Amino acid sequence: MAATSEDTAIDVRDLRMRYGTNEVLSGVTFSARRGEVVVLLGPNGAGKTTTVEILEGFRGRSAGEVSVLGVDPTHGDEAWRARLGVVLQSWRDHGKWRVRELLRHLGAYYAPYSTERTRRPWDVDELVAAVGLSEHADAKIMRLSGGQRRRLDVAIGIVGCPEVLFLDEPTAGFDPHARREFHDLVHRLADEDTTILLTTHDLDEAEKLADRIIVLAGGRIIADGSADELSRRMSTDAEVRWTRDGERFVHATQDATAFVRDLLVRHDSGISDLEVRRASLEETYMKLVQRVESGLGDEEAVRAFLRETANQEVTR
């Protein structure tokens, strides 16, 4: 078992998974600190779900070392599982239960695992308010809208005050207001030292929530860093925009700092609305994935990416 420090909630070393001759995961290595929000991105079939299910203890692995809260998930007991939270893509059972009743019932299973550091379960009324279901606390689940049911899914996942929370497409079906409230909840949980591993296809959401983004493709990690770090690595040009004497200008440059400095020297007045725009997360993500899906093949694509990022680190 890989050694883990007290600050490390998830530790994965050389994780491999095969189904017959098909290798779904090939040497995946990463870690997550307590209170860190890590977003796992990748195209369908990249190995995201398999990785998360191994961490949750729902699936075995072919090789490698995995530790979640200091425990190998394949040997996790009920006390260990009580420290985890899981929000699946859908959870539609028990339609005749009322929201408050179901959460109180499920929360009771966590009570024996309460500690001085972590009181379990979450107070039902506080939890209902946290996910925006106070007005529907006494409604039967079958009467909830799709978005309200999704809020309930989140409540079920965090009712035990988890130390590590796994979220699979958590805001699918949320309207913009509900999505913003959920983002606030994620930040609140992270501030309380909950480690969050989230999968999503919403790149805007990933950029807003993630402390770190891990991109999986072809069963390998092809990028690991903050949204800003990834965009800096992949973007050869930055776009500088400014207004002078009422006219709008745009210029692409590899060295935005030097260009802006020279611009301000040449035009010491009259410059306004100055901004530097680097590649968005979506542009960065698409470029990364296209490398792997290109005719190069997975290994050559990953090596090409690593060469490019190494060169940019040297010249920066």
TrEMBL record:
A Pfam family matched in the record: ABC_tran
The keyword Transport belongs to this UniProt entry's keyword annotation: yes
Molecular-function GO terms, alphabetical: ATP binding
Domain ABC transporter: 10-243
PROSITE patterns: ABC_TRANSPORTER_1, ABC_TRANSPORTER_2
Topological relation to the membrane, as annotated: Peripheral membrane protein
UniProt main location, coarse: membrane
UniProt keyword terms in alphabetical order: Antibiotic resistance, ATP-binding, Nucleotide-binding, Transport
Compartments in which it is found: Cell membrane
Gene3D superfamilies, sorted: P-loop containing nucleotide triphosphate hydrolases
Domain of life: Bacteria
The keyword Transport is annotated on this UniProt entry: yes
Cited InterPro entries: AAA+_ATPase, ABC_transporter-like_ATP-bd, ABC_transporter-like_CS, ABC_transporter_ATP-binding, P-loop_NTPase
PANTHER family: ABC TRANSPORTER ATP-BINDING PROTEIN (PTHR42711:SF17)
Protein's UniProt name: ABC transporter ATP-binding protein
Organism: Haloechinothrix salitolerans
Taxonomic path: Bacteria, Bacillati, Actinomycetota, Actinomycetes, Pseudonocardiales
